[in-house]
Amino acid sequence: MAGAYDASLPGVPDWLNKGDNAWQLTSATLVGLQSMPGLVILYASIVKKKWAVNSAFMALYAFAAVLLCWVLLCYKMAFGDELVPFWGRGGPAFDQGYLKGQAKIPETIRKFGNGTTEKEATMPYFPMATLVYFQFTFAAITTILVAGSVLGRMNIKAWMAFVPLWLIFSYTVGAYSLWGGGFLYHWGVIDYSGGYVIHLSSGVAGFVAAYWVGPRPQADRERFPPNNVLLMLAGAGLLWMGWSGFNGGAPYAANLTSSIAVLNTNLSAATSLLVWTCLDVIFFGKPSVIGAIQGMVTGLAGVTPGAGLIQTWAAIIIGIFSGSIPWASMMILHKKSILLQQVDDTLAVFYTHAVAGVLGGLLTGLFAHPDLCVLLLPVPNTNGAFYGGNGGKQFLKQLVGAAFITVWNVVSTTLILLAIKMFIPLRMAEEELGIGDDAAHGEEAYALWGDGEKFDATRHETQMQEFERDQEAAHPSYVHGARGVTIVL
C-alpha cells in the first residue's frame, strides 16, 4: 500500500502538507460560515420585522457576488504581482495549472539594499486554490459588514452595483498594501488578520455609505426592535465561533501562532462581552442581549490586529478596552456629536468595527511581543512599545496605517456611491420605505403584520373577506380583530 506521501500519488506533491491544507480549508469554511449563514441570520433577525428579507438578501447577494469577482479579477489585485505600491495587477485566478500549484504571494519577498534576498516570498504548504478561497471569505465578510450600516433603506439595485465596485476599488487596495506585499507590508505595519483591512475599512466605508444614502424614516430610527432575539443569538454564535478560523488561519499553517491566536481571540471576545454587559447594567439598570452581542463583536475586532502576536494577558486588556471605549463612543460621544447623529449607521458598524479595529491596531503597537513577532512577521526586530527597541516607531507605523486605510475608504466609497447615484437612486422611495420587504422583494419574512409595516388593504381585501365569511359561517362568535387577527369574544 502506498504511504500518505508516496511519490506514486499525483494528487500529493512533495511540497503539500496535508495538516496545513486541512486546517486552512477548515479555517476558510469557518470564516465562510460567519457570513453565510451567520451574518445572514444576524441581519435578518436584528432588524425590524419589515426589513428581515431585505437585510438577509443584501448579505446573501454580497457573498455570491464577491466570490465571482474574486476569481475573475480581484484576488490578483490583492495578492498578485505589483501594479503600484498599493495595488496588485488584476487578472483571473481559475486556471487549473495556477490553482494546483503551491500557494505563493509573490510581492512578499524582501530584499536588502544591495538586491540580495533577505526573506523569501510567503509560500504556504498548500495549493493556490486553498489560498484563493481562504482570502475570498475575508473579502466577502468585509463587504457584508458594510451593509450593516445601510440596512433598512438602501435601494437593493444600488447595493448590487456597489458590491463589485467597492471590492475592486477599495478592499483590494487595503489587502494588497498590508497583506499582499504592498508598501505598508514592507514598512512593517502590523495587521495580523484584518483589524485594518477588514474592520476599519468596513466601519469607515459603512459610515460614509450611510451618509450618502441618507437616514431611515424617522419612525424607524426611533423604534427599530429586533424581530427575533433568539435567532439573533444564533447568528452571533456563528460569528463568534467562526472567528477561530478567522484568526487561527492567518498564519497559513497549523502552528504555534495559530494556537495562540485562537485562545487570545476567544478570551478577548468573552472579556469584552462581560465589560459591555456590566456597563449596561451600571448605566441602564439591566443587561441587554443586543449590547452583549455588540460587546462580543468589539472584542473580536479589537484582538484581530494582533491575535497571534500578543501574550494572553494582553488579550484580556484588549478585551477590557474593546468593551469600554466603543461603548463610550456609542453611548456618550454619539449623543453629544451633531455630526454623528446626522449619520444613520443602522447597526453601529462604525463603532463596533472601525473604532474597535483602530483601538486593536494601536494596542498591538504597544503589546506585540518580540518572541511572537519573530515567528511570523517579515520585518526583523519588530515589537510593541512596551518591550522597548523599535516599539515607539511601531506605534507610529500603526497610526499611519490606520490613517491610510481611513482616508482611502472615505474617498473611494464616496466616489463609488456618487457614480452609482448618477444612474440608480441610492435610497428607496418613501412609499417603499413605508412597506418594506413586500415593496422591495415581493416577499415577507412572516405571515404577520405589525411593528411598523404598512398594511395594504387593497392587496388583502378579497382574501380577508372570504376568510371572515368562512369563520362567521363556522362560528358566529368569531370576529375580525386588530391587525388581521381573528379573535373569539
From TrEMBL:
Pfam families: Ammonium_transp
Subcellular location as annotated: Cell membrane
Membrane topology reported for the UniProt record: Multi-pass membrane protein
Keywords, ordered alphabetically: Ammonia transport, Membrane, Transmembrane, Transmembrane helix, Transport
Domain Ammonium transporter AmtB-like: residue ranges: 22-446
InterPro entries from the UniProt entry: Ammonium/urea_transptr, Ammonium_transpt, Ammonium_transpt_CS, NH4_transpt_AmtB-like_dom, RhesusRHD
Single GO MF annotation: ammonium channel activity
Membrane-spanning residues: 22-44, 56-78, 132-151, 158-176, 196-214, 226-246, 252-276, 288-307, 313-334, 346-368, 399-420
GO cellular component, one term: plasma membrane
Annotated family: Belongs to the ammonia transporter channel (TC 1.A.11.2) family.
Full protein name: Ammonium transporter
Species whose genome carries this gene: Raphanus sativus (Radish)
Gene name in the database record: LOC108806857
